[in-house]
Amino acid sequence: MRAQPTSSFLLSASARRPSTTNHSKLIVVFASRHVSTWNSSSPPFGYSHGYTSDVDSKEPMRGPIRNSVSPKLTPRALKQHLDRFVVGQTRSKRILSTAVYHHYKRIQQLRQRQEELEDLDRVAQQLNEDAANANIDYVSKPPPPRSSGIGGIEMKSIRDDPPLTIEKSNILCLGPTGVGKTLMIRTLARVLEVPFSMSDCTPFTQAGYVGEDADVCVHRLLAASNWDVKKAEQGIVCLDEFDKLSKPRVNHGSKDIAGEGVQQALLKIIEGTTLTINAKPDRKHPAGLPGGGFSAAGGGGSAKGETFQVDTSNILFIFTGAFSGMEKVIMERVNKGSIGFNAPIGNLEPNTEFFASHTPYFNPQRPETPTPAIATTTTSARVGSARAATPSPSITTSSGSALASKILKPKFNALELTEPADLVAYGLIPEIVGRIPIIAAVEPLTVELLTQVLTEPANSLIAQYTQLFSLSGVELRFTTPALREIAKTAEAMGTGARGLRTVLERLLGDAMFEAPGSSVRHVLVTEKVAKREMMPGYFARGQKHLFNAEWQNEEEEWAKTGGEPFEAEKLRAVGF
């Protein structure tokens, strides 16, 4: 190595400098000992793995949860924040919170690494300036490495020791519409104050055809980040209706420009590439006039706009879609060879230990499968007796029917068994499936969950309509049976939580027209009103006691029944 002679030369030269402190001498000597290593593209100053790998997780949080009781950013804290806005979907919340948390930490590490690189560049520049001022023939390029030749051909030494890089994990969130997929993703992006954009995959086509190109999703992300390229390169892109890009199962002879072609175009964007985005100027302010060009970018005075180079390597992509019919694909795979040839899928019982044993994650209901080498009759008998001794929850009815002896089984969501092979069978190409390692399945909302959606979230529909009526000086109130009936009606629509607003608009349409500006000061929605058997109850200013009495009477009647009128719905919710 030639680092030592160079070091001694710089030491003697720095000692002859007339106005140099001891501190500056030490800096020059320390850096000069590593100049050969630095210039040979290896980690500077003796780093063995590149750069700092620890990120302080106790730093003050940003976003809506910075004033929470536990301000430390963790996946648990993110899930608790999601619980305020989304009802149910416990497992999907855990998966999304963990994935977005790790994306946030990756961005922190990359940002910290970039700052360290900039610091090292500043130190290198300062050392070169100091050496030039001292009239030192500073070594700008290291001497060529010694190599052994074979047959007169020199063999160059190859050294490739890049720093450890944590790669991103894209997410697929699939499930029925109206259950909170988009809301969960938007909430997490708002919490972390990360640039976020959502694009519908339905109008996507291959480049050159009528429609939107696949890279328009990154264009929207750049606009959402106020045309800040660095922020956009660390943002989150959500591609909704991703299942609409699946290949058709029957080839009609025409070119598939909106299915497989778009998937191929998304490959490089998801994996990581540099996109050239030509942003158009604001049409409201023509170029050359005051306020013209880009209102967000602060530039772009030309008619052609401005060009941006965006690297998508660190952009997190989240794909969402209903994937209608995926349950049938999963059932055919899971039950192949176990239910007989051509057995109808509709005759299968979904709540069985057989299906629980196929979950791709730990499941407490997974049946025990002892290893054949150590399984004995005594062990099997002991396990069987233990199961028999374990009390099982049961349904108790006032009539004492035979249903009271039935065991409550956990509800089964077939989408939780989704494997990459199922996505390929559905119509996605294997290349894009391999770039989406995380799969989060959401479940349909039951009547109980829809009732919670009406009242529990921070921005619940009941709170919205109550506030809407209060703007006109009218108090709106619902009884518990009415809320339950509204949830049942919305469930029958099959549109998830979105159906709740439709039901409320139908029930309150006349009241929203008649109450403002009239003598009505209180509006009551009872169970009969929810069943559309009568109009909402109107009460004037002096009839508040009647308003409270009628509401109290129905609540007491509901408490006496104990939910017995809805036993059939409870049984259907658990699979009976």
From TrEMBL:
GO cellular component, one term: mitochondrial matrix
Keyword Heme annotated: no
Pfam families linked: AAA_2, ClpB_D2-small
Methyltransferase keyword on record: no
Gene3D superfamilies on file: 1.10.8.60, P-loop containing nucleotide triphosphate hydrolases
SUPFAM superfamilies per the UniProt record, alphabetical: P-loop containing nucleoside triphosphate hydrolases
Keywords: ATP-binding, Nucleotide-binding
Ranges where the record places region Disordered: 136-156
Residues annotated as domain Clp ATPase C-terminal: 445-534
Protein name per Swiss-Prot or TrEMBL: Clp ATPase C-terminal domain-containing protein
Single GO BP term: proteolysis involved in protein catabolic process
Xref: InterPro entries: ATP-dep_Clp_protease_ClpX (IPR050052), ATPase_AAA_core (IPR003959), Clp_ATPase_C (IPR019489), P-loop_NTPase (IPR027417)
One example GO MF annotation: ATP hydrolysis activity
Source species, domain of life: Eukaryota
